[in-house]
Specification:
With 325 residues, the protein is of the alpha+beta class. The protein has helices at 21-29, 37-44, 58-73, 97-105, 121-134, 158-161, 217-239, 256-265, 277-280, 287-297; strands at residues 4-13, 17-20, 48-51, 82-86, 112-115, 140-148, 166-176, 181-188, 196-197, 201-203, 206-208, 214-215, 248-251, 306-313, 317-324. The structure holds acetyl coenzyme *A (ACO). Acetyl coenzyme *A (ACO) binds at residues 35, 39-40, 43-44, 118-119, 158-159, 162, 196, 215, 217-218, 220-221, 224, 254-255, 258, 282, 284, 312-314.
């Protein structure tokens, strides 16, 4: 048993096709769907997103992100003894994208499974990996968020299709004598299923219902701002810290206004907010590890900094992890 787990390396990957708001507006206009760069930027802060090629799955994006994270941690695939992938857009119904990723990494034997908590998935996955390391079930985990949300977007619905993108982020989480992850806080409330969902299912070889994303944007917005503040405060209390101790806030990158609202409620200056949503759109479970990696590689977030990660998404699910990098 080890007292703590600690992130020792981060990595990320974006598929090469970058689609700006103007590109998307042109493509949508061909379908008779009207939008504009100005509307998208004003309401969301998003300027561009990346879309994966049709033959690229979540596990492919995850593979690149994991290689970068392992390299940053100075670890090889042979050191990995746990793989958790947070995704709502897995390669297949089964097996898990984590099992497929394990094979692509060229390893076998260690436990590998997916976590499905939509945009909170990475926070859930990190919390599970932390618990498994602290109880001695693992020593070196790959914790990944990977999504191809472009596959489940309704490009005839301008209220949702302009918001999301594809990508992957990963961390290497290792057993450590020093912290590390300080505290976490997870929640779900299934009565809100209907405000953010992909209600389709597969049965008897057919898709039943709609296999495309449906969202009540205003209901999500209100709920998100409230629960992100609550999760941050609960996590700080568990760790015996206050918001003033936070060096960096890295919330789920869905909408700049939600993120700025959360920072304001915590009385954090805007400079402490890590923002990548303008460049990535909302990449669901991938958004937090992607933003973390961009901030680490950009020299913004440094070793020893105290970082609050926060997720909120379909379910409804939400949660936070406070850690020292
Ligand atoms: N381009 C142009 N106009 C648009 C577009 C668009 N892409 N989308 C909607 N509009 C129009 C609407 O039709 C409406 O027009 P009307 O007034 O003539 O009826 C007008 O813009 C305003 O629409 P609203 O839905 O009221 O716009 P709102 O200010 O609420 O912004 C948004 C919509 C951006 C979706 C906002 O509600 C939001 O960000 N919600 C949170 C969504 C979110 O973050 N989801 C993800 C979190 S969880 C997860 O990541 C899965």
């Amino acid at each position: 048993m080890t007292p703590f787990s600690r992130i020792t390396g981060t990595g990320s990957y974006l598929p090469p096709r970058r689609v700006t708001n103007d590109d998307l507006a042109r493509e949508l206009a061909e379908r008779g769907v009207e939008t504009s760069d100005q509307w998208i930027v004003e309401r969301t802060g998003i300027r561009a997103r990346h879309f994966a090629a049709p033959d690229v799955g979540s596990s492919d994006l995850a593979l690149h992100a994991c290689r970068h994270a392992l390299e940053a941690a100075g670890r090889s695939v042979g050191d990995v003894d746990l793989i958790i992938v947070a995704t709502s857009t897995p390669d297949m119904i089964f097996p898990s994208s984590a099992a497929i990723l394990q094979n692509k990494l060229g390893i076998a034997g260690c436990p590998a499974f997916d976590v499905q908590a939509v945009c909170s998935g990475f926070i859930y996955a990190l919390t599970v990996a932390d618990a498994m390391i602290k109880t001695g079930s693992a020593r070196c985990a790959l914790v990944v968020g990977a999504e191809v949300f472009s596959r489940i977007l309704d490009f005839n619905d301008r209220t949702t299709c302009v918001l999301f993108g594809d990508g992957a982020g990963a961390v290497v989480l290792e057993a450590s004598e020093t912290p590390g992850i300080l505290a976490s806080d997870l929640h779900a409330d299934g009565k809100h299923v209907g405000i953010l969902c992909v209600p389709g299912s597969v049965s008897g070889g057919q898709v039943l219902g709609t296999p495309l994303l449906h969202m009540d944007g205003q209901a999500v917005f209100k709920l998100a701002v409230r629960v992100l503040e609550e999760a941050a405060n609960a996590t700080l209390a568990k760790a015996g810290k206050t918001a003033a101790d936070i060096d960096w806030l890295i919330p789920h990158q869905a909408n700049l206004r939600i993120m700025q609202g959360t920072a304001r409620k915590l009385k954090l200056p805007a400079e402490k907010l890590v923002v990548t949503v303008h460049d990535h759109g909302n990449t669901s479970a991938a958004s937090i590890p992607l933003a973390l990696d961009v901030a680490v590689r950009g020299g913004q977030v440094r070793k020893g900094d105290m970082v609050m990660l926060e997720g909120v998404g379909g379910g409804f699910t939400w949660g936070a992890v406070l850690l020292t990098l």
